[in-house]
Amino acid sequence: MNHYRWILKLPERDKVLQLQKESGWPPLLSLLLVNRGICEAREALRFLYPRLSDFEDPFQLPDMKEGVKVLGEALRKGQKIGIYGDYDVDGVTGAAVLYLFLKELGAEPAVLFPHRERDGYGFHAHLLPWFKTQGVEVIVTVDCGISALEVVEEAKRLSLKVIVTDHHELPPTLPRAEAVISGKRTPPSSPFYHLCGAGVAFALVRALRSYLFETGFFKDQIPNLKRYLDLVALGTVADMVPLKGENRLLTFFGLPLLSERARPGIRALCEVSGINGTLGTEEILFRLGPRINAAGRLKEARLAFELLVTEEIGKARERAEILNRLNAERQRREPKVLAEALEQIPAKIPSGLVLFQEDWPLGILGIVASRLAERYYRPVVLLTRKGDLLKGSGRSIPEVDLYQALALAACAEDLAGFGGHPAAGGLKLEAPKLKRFAENFSRAIEAQLSRRKPPLRLEELQPQLHLEAQAEVRELLDPNFLEGFQRLAPFGPGNPEPVMAFSNFEVRNPKRVAERHLRFTLWQKGTGLSAIFFRLPEEKSALLLKTPDLHLAASPVLSHFQGRQYLELKIWDIKEGNGEGQPLYFPRV
Fold first, then answer.
1. Domain match, 543 and 452 both
2. Cα separation of 449 and 433, whole Å?
3. From residue 329, how far is each of 239, 305, 308, 336, 341 by CA, in Å?
4. How many angstroms separate the CA atoms of 509 and 533, rounded?
5. Distance between CA atoms of 445 and 404, rounded to whole angstroms?
6. Lowest CB count within 10 Å: 39, 298, 332, 439, which one?
7. Are 517 and 541 part of one and the same domain?
8. Is residue 539 part of a domain?
């Protein structure tokens, strides 16, 4: 009956009590902070009330000094700078940040994005001559290039200097570029480790401004970099990187700027997306991000780039309308690919699903792979034919590192190329090797699962729901809790939306909303709180309304309506109790 496997995180009682004593925060908020590794009052204050001065020195990133020296010299000599960005939200926003900053310095960068269908992901040698025709002498890659050893060598042959900025997993050998700037080159505990492509580009911009200031470049006003945080936050959230370290600061300060809609492209994109209120992570993931990605998926990423950098609202609205139509086209194509993929699913689900069809549109495969990975809770690779090769995208589940699965020799030897990170990747291979690759892919996944501690069997794979606390409605409505809770956001990977268990409650005033959802009042000890269960299955609806002894898994959410902010519960799952009405799962702190 239960879709999720509930994972119960028991509180570290001593640490919670100590933080509560030092900070004065309520027990529930102290528990949530400790669960995020924040155990000291000073650390909690910095987390809840961050400052712009909390950003770390970007020169901690390897090769940063070398990179800014090359760019500084190019700016002083008036050399043309080229920007080569990936075609997704991360690459487009990162390229936009770098472009706008260089323009502010008086440069006129030449910007190029690969075409998903013609070129595929990555930094490509056959596109280098275009930069030569533009008079470019220095190329900066954004969100790509970390594995482009041969391309960088070709660039050297063409007398092009290359600065690589990327965030994908490191290959065994780095390209011999003037600089290779990546958070992955720092320790995993570093605040830079989880930066996305846009975050790395912004770190480069921060370091370049500092270098130029110290070397006397600025004659007048020094550029204010805060204005770029809206674009960096957009790329960071859309790329689903952990919202910790620098990423938390980028999103904490960037999301309010995004909500101001000062940039014409953001304003126009919100208009076509039907967003009227505050912009948060959900609006980026489900409204803005898909429309920006639609440009690279179905046409040219440059359309999205031009939307973000234009200063003319008319041009912005024109571009936004194009992206909106492309997104609608993507939505029309997606069900067909999904249906055709479902027809190929075998009766016995393997460890990893590898599906192929000749005519699938390449730009849709990542989205459909995500749908299938969610439905079957298995890593999924979808492939289509492009010329002499099969090309495609893969998506994974939290228990399996997709990049490592592809990188295993058993899989890598069959691949003509691959790249990505633990959750997603791209790949290409020759058609005759498809069957062997599919078999080896499943073996690589099983090997990963067996190495986990404790080991996981395939039949144990199930979506997990990590519950952090046993809570009561009155605790959530405590003003002191609410004050701190709203500052825990933004939520996302690395800083998940808190999920809590609720017991001993009544369901009052149930009401169906849009036929698929149920809204009701969760009543507990004389206090009520609005709750909504999205896409509630019929069997669980009967359970919720007729069974007196239940446990709910729910997240408190701050919602907005007609300019008013209010707290409600978003229900994830329900379980039947043991008939005694006891809070089964958590000792109280």
1. no
2. 24
3. 22, 19, 21, 12, 19
4. 13
5. 9
6. 332
7. yes
8. yes
